Automatic annotation (TrEMBL):
Ranges where the Pyridoxamine 5'-phosphate oxidase N-terminal domain occurs: 151-265
Top-rank taxon: Bacteria
Stored Pfam families: PNPOx_N
TM spans (from-to): none
Source species of the chain: Sinimarinibacterium flocculans
Name of protein: Pyridoxamine 5'-phosphate oxidase N-terminal domain-containing protein
Entry-linked InterPro entries: Pyridox_Oxase_N (IPR011576), Split_barrel_FMN-bd (IPR012349)
Length: 336
């Protein structure tokens, strides 16, 4: 029997492809004006804290702008905004996923915990970039209506989840939070004593996979849009091309290239104070004048990358509307 386990980056890239050079051009080491504005509008985040062997994730919420920027390279995150603020320890890596109501793209900011006091967690930024809209589109995240009838049993709850914030950390303690989204029944599944999820087309940076190859512990928050109850998942991950499980996650006759098995899963279903406090469903307002395509283009233009690929990417993005057309085409034709 052929071993379907993926154990190294070379094997991973042979299956999913290498990260295209221009994709890394969108990554900044600071908050530019568009990212700072995103912060002032965001009422919801998922944040992970971890070291080389430990990772945890919690939701947080508040009035738009509850996460405060202290210049372009520091954030102050109110302790009271988080469900589990004690996950953070000085020196930890952190990763955040920041959401805007009605907007399917998300802002990812990663770095280190610089300090913690009674009121706030101070975060030093290493990288910032906008993430594509596919996960929230697939999960129909912002179209949900309020729900109070979600299942209590863990397996039934997992079967109805449509969104997951996945937290991973590498061997050096650099943390990352990646959004995952799928229709109910294809987000998370129990099988053979493990919990499984599929990989779908996204931003192709494969940060989570790279982290799991060096440090297999993960943490995740899965939810049913419309409900403030969440599933908190932890365990040890194995990345695999197992054909039976890949076929089990087929959507629209498209089979994922990779699935992940979470062994020895720790799973808890509980209410999230952050989601209950925010009550994000039904969607009532969307921030005006948020142009994700323009943000992507601006971040690429600001990149310090050199070489022919970088020059061609910058030149192409000077064509009016090109980024928007490219995103719309990708979101329509490459969701699965």
């Amino acid at each position: 029997m052929t071993d379907a386990t993926i154990r190294d980056v070379a094997t991973l890239e042979a299956i999913v492809g290498k990260v295209p050079g221009p994709l890394d051009m969108k990554v900044m080491d600071h908050l530019d004006d568009s990212a700072l504005r995103w912060l002032t509008l965001s009422p919801l985040l998922f944040v992970a804290f971890g070291s080389g062997t430990r990772i945890g994730i919690t939701p947080g919420s508040g009035a738009p702008g509850f996460v405060e920027a202290d210049g372009a390279r520091r954030l102050r995150l109110p302790v009271a905004s988080l469900d589990e603020p004690t996950l953070a320890q000085p020196g930890d890596g952190f990763g955040t996923l920041m959401l805007l109501p009605g907007v399917a793209e998300t802002l990812r900011v990663n770095g280190r915990v610089a300090a913690i006091d009674r009121n706030a967690i101070e975060l030093a930024i290493d990288e910032c970039y906008l993430h594509c809209a596919k996960a929230l589109i697939r999960s129909d995240f912002w179209a949900a209506s309020p729900r109070s009838d979600v299942p209590d049993a863990s397996e039934a709850f997992l079967g109805e989840t449509r969104f997951m914030a996945l937290a991973t950390v590498d061997a050096n303690g650099r943390a990352d939070v990646s959004p995952k989204g799928d229709p109910a029944g294809t987000m998370l599944r129990r099988h053979d004593g493990a919990v499984w999820y599929a990989d779908r087309p996204g931003n192709r940076r494969v940060d989570s996979f790279r982290n799991l190859l060096t440090q297999p512990r993960l943490a995740a928050i899965a939810l049913i849009p419309g409900s403030s109850r969440i599933a908190v998942l932890g365990g040890s991950a194995t990345i695999t091309t197992d054909e039976t499980m890949r076929n089990a996650f087929s959507v629209r006759e498209r089979v994922p290239r990779i699935v992940t098995r979470v062994d020895a899963p720790a799973l808890a279903i509980r209410d999230s104070a952050a989601l209950a406090r925010l009550a994000p469903w039904p969607l009532t307002t969307r921030p005006a004048d948020v142009d994700a395509a323009a943000m992507f283009a601006t971040h690429v233009q600001q990149s310090t990358a050199t070489g022919m690929q970088a020059k061609l990417a910058r030149a192409a993005l000077k064509i009016p509307g090109l980024m928007r057309k490219g995103l719309d085409h990708d979101y329509k034709n490459n969701l699965y």
